[in-house]
Amino acid sequence: MELDEISAIADDYAARLGIRAPKVKQGRVLRYRTGGAWLRLRGRWPMLVVDSRFGALEPAEQEAWLAYVMSAAPRFRRWHWQQFLAWFPLVLIMVIVVIAVEELLPQLGEIPFLIVVLGGSLLIMRWYQEVCFKADRAVVDVFGWPVMDTILDLERRLSSRVGRALFSTPSPARRTARLEQFTRVPE
To answer: What are the tens digits of pLDDT across the range 18-63?
Structure first.
C-alpha cells in the first residue's frame, strides 16, 4: 500500500473517530509495535508513521491495524493526564510515608523505597492494560467485530510473549475475553 493510499484511509478513519487527520510518513516504528505503524500525537498535528513491517501485511490486516492505532493513540494521551491527576496525590502520600518510615525505622533500609517502586510499576502496567482494553472497545464500537478479530489474529501471529510481558500488553486471549463481556452482534 502506497503512502497516499494509507493517507486516504487514515483520513477516513480520522473522520469516523472524530480526530484530526494525520500526516503519513515512512519511518522507524518501535519493534514492539506489532503491525509496523503507530500514530504519534506530539505537537499540533498527528503523524502516522509506517515501516516495512506494515507493507508486509495483507491489505485487510493493514486496514485493521490502522483502525487500531488510530483508535488507541488518542486514548493514551487522554488517559495519561486523567491518570496522572488521579494518582498523583496517592503517589505523593506514598513518598511522604516512605520518607517518614525511613526516618523512624532506618533499620528497614531500602525496603520501603522498593515497595513504592514496585507499586508504581504495577500501577503503570495496569494503566497501560486499561488503555489497551479501551482502544479495543473503540475499535469494536466504530469499526465492528470483524476488524477487531483481524487485529487479534495479527497479534497472536506476530507479537512475542517477551514484548507483551515487557510492556504489560494483555494477551489476545485476555483481550478477547474482556471484549466478550459486550454483546457480540451476529454477522
So the answer is: 888 899 999 998 877 778 898 887 777 889 999 999 999 999 999 9
Place of cell 499540533: 44
Residue tagged 480520522 (cell numbers): 14
65's grid cell: 491495524
Query: CA triplet 21, 124, 82: central angle to 5 degrees?
Result: 55
Euclidean distance between CA atoms 1 and 73, whole angstroms? 22
Taking Cα atoms as reference points, which of 135, 127, 121 lies closest to residue 178?
135
Q: Is residue 184 part of a domain?
A: no
CA distance 6 to 65: 11
Whole-prediction pTM: 0.76
Q: Smallest Cα–Cα separation from 10: which of 52, 46, 56, 36?
A: 46
Which residue range is the domain that position 117 belongs to? 3-179
N residues, the chain: 187
187 lies in a domain?
no
